[in-house]
């Protein structure tokens, strides 16, 4: 079906359109067919669906590169908090009593619906433990309607630590990382508290960047260094995705800066940076170190961050960082938590938490996140996340965009937090306001680029027809809260917040994974034999049990596979037509 959207202004910093200023075109036509965007026809043609979007803005579908939407930790959180959902006031919409509608921990299907309601069409789960990858993909397959993918969690597994401790050649480590990414059908590599989760199993409660592991002698800095290099040399588009040491600890900015140095100039992405950006100044020995991180980013062009913005209210923190979740369990609200050791690969901690507006530390965390957004002057290097659900629910994104784009709204919110936190923050002195082009870059263009998703994030012809049409309004928050229209793969699926039944393919979504053929040459049979032996000595099942075949992913787990995420690669689809 040939579709035309006419009369809207196109917001796309990477698309060249005659008359474009700062990524915003004059009223233009947007054409799509067979799930792809098209050049305008050379000859006059009547579209099958013609939509008048006068007074509107059009953007590519939003991309969330860090949101916890699948896997064992999410399931544990739902089980732990089942009795804490309804009838809690504020846990769900006032007209609902379904636990699936929880504001901060919705079911998989509700998660998909809420993302689509905001115009997000691609979401990445940032912590897929290899031995639990099947469960993670199965749950993400239930997030129906949006494209998903996962980051393979390494850096606390016995095999990798052994290889580093033995000073194995980088080629061997590259082969191990490549095989794990292929086996788990992931798109990138994540490390959480490098070596710290493993050290916690030996009763250690902290592990700084240059501190040797109590058993292997390997330091977190070494882990970061070899993994950054491995990810780059394998050819994965997304840099090593790093949850730094000492999350949430006052003074942890020193660890964060040391982690940047440990990357040795290789690309590195620091996730939920707000939680790793604390100093020790002031009467509470807790202060903002946002300026120090921004200064370091100015010196190191290889560094990108997402923020992990805190939102006030009830939520639940879920993390593989069992070392620091053990500490945080003392502050659980309600007072219960789950700590789990997962095979010999990682851990898991689930701790319910409530961020309070009039609490000094919580207020300053909120302000630090906004400082990072506003002080990093390049919107292609800072990404919009709440580390859902750790900092708060992803449904806060329209409100956050409002705060970034409207200084008056920001100053009003600043006046409502703890007064000492407001005084300790530099937020009041920042006049910058995000433009629509900045928003499009941060939430569309840049996430696609850093993930190697060359077929989305832009309105350029040939790309996937994930298109969102917003009614232009004075309030950025209201505008982004309820799009006028949402198209997924060329199918209209939302109109003014209401679901529209697609007329074409019943399955519009897919699983995004690194191209196995592109990285498979990194693994030699002799290396794989060694990996099998090492894994058998430390795990409870064979290494080959980790492998998820294309057929299993599609026929058993219910996801179509799209190979992508490589440096300079274009996407190909297996198991169906391009979505």
TrEMBL record:
Keyword annotations from UniProtKB, A to Z: Hydrolase, Transferase
Keyword Hydrolase: yes
Region (Disordered): 1-28
Ranges where the Amidohydrolase domain occurs: 51-473
EC category: hydrolase
Keyword Hydrolase: yes
Protein name in the entry: Formyltransferase/hydrolase complex Fhc subunit A
Source organism per UniProt: Allorhodopirellula solitaria
Taxonomic path: Bacteria, Pseudomonadati, Planctomycetota, Planctomycetia, Pirellulales
């Amino acid at each position: 079906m040939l579709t035309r959207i006419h009369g809207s202004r196109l917001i796309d910093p990477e698309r060249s359109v005659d008359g474009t200023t700062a990524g915003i075109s004059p009223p233009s036509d947007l054409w799509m067919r067979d799930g792809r965007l098209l050049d305008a026809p050379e000859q006059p043609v009547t579209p099958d669906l013609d939509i008048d979007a006068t007074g509107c803005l059009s953007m590519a579908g939003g991309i969330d590169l860090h949101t916890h939407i699948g896997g064992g930790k999410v399931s544990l959180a739902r089980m732990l908090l089942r009795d804490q959902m309804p009838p809690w006031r504020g846990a769900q919409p006032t007209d609902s009593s379904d636990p699936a509608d929880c504001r901060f921990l919705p079911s998989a299907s509700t998660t998909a619906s809420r993302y689509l309601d905001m115009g997000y069409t691609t979401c990445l789960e940032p912590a897929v433990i290899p031995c639990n990858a099947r469960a993670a993909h199965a749950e993400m397959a239930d997030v129906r309607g949006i494209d998903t993918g996962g980051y393979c969690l390494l850096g606390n597994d016995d095999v990798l630590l052994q290889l580093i401790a033995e000073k194995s050649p980088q080629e061997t480590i590259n082969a191990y990382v490549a095989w794990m990414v292929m086996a788990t059908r992931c798109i990138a590599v994540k490390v959480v508290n490098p070596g710290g989760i493993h050290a916690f199993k030996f009763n250690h409660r902290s592990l700084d960047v240059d501190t040797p592991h109590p058993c292997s002698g390997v330091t977190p800095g070494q882990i970061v260094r070899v993994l950054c290099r491995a990810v780059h040399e394998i050819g994965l588009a997304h840099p090593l995705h790093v949850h730094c040491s000492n999350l949430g600890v006052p003074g942890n900015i020193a660890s964060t800066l040391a982690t940047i140095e440990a990357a040795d100039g290789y690309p590195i992405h620091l996730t939920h940076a707000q939680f790793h950006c604390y100093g020790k100044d002031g009467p509470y020995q807790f202060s903002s170190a946002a300026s120090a991180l921004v200064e370091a980013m100015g010196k190191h062009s290889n560094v990108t961050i997402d923020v992990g913005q805190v939102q006030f209210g009830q939520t639940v923190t879920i993390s593989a960082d069992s070392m620091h979740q053990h500490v945080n369990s003392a502050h659980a609200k309600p007072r219960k938590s789950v700590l789990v050791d997962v095979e010999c690969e990682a851990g898991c901690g689930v701790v319910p938490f409530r961020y309070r507006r009039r609490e000094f530390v919580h207020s300053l965390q909120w302000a630090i996140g906004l400082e990072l957004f506003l002080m990093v002057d390049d919107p292609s290097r800072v990404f919009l996340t709440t580390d859902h659900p750790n900092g708060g629910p992803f449904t806060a994104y329209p409100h956050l965009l409002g705060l970034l784009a409207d200084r008056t709204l920001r100053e009003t919110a600043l006046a409502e937090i703890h007064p000492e936190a407001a005084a300790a923050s530099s937020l009041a002195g920042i006049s910058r306001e995000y433009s629509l082009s900045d928003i499009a870059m941060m939430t569309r263009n840049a996430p696609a680029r850093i993930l190697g998703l060359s077929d989305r994030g832009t309105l350029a012809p040939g790309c996937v027809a994930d298109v969102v049409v917003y009614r232009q309004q004075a309030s950025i928050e209201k505008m982004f809260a309820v799009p006028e229209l949402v198209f997924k793969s060329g199918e209209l699926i939302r109109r003014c917040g209401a679901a529209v039944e697609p007329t074409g393919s019943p399955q519009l979504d897919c699983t995004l994974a690194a191209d196995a053929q592109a990285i498979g040459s990194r693994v030699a049979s002799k290396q794989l034999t060694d990996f099998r032996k090492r894994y058998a000595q430390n795990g409870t099942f064979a290494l080959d049990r980790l492998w998820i075949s294309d057929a299993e992913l599609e026929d058993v787990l219910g996801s179509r596979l799209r190979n992508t995420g490589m440096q300079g690669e274009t996407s190909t689809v297996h198991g169906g037509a391009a979505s």
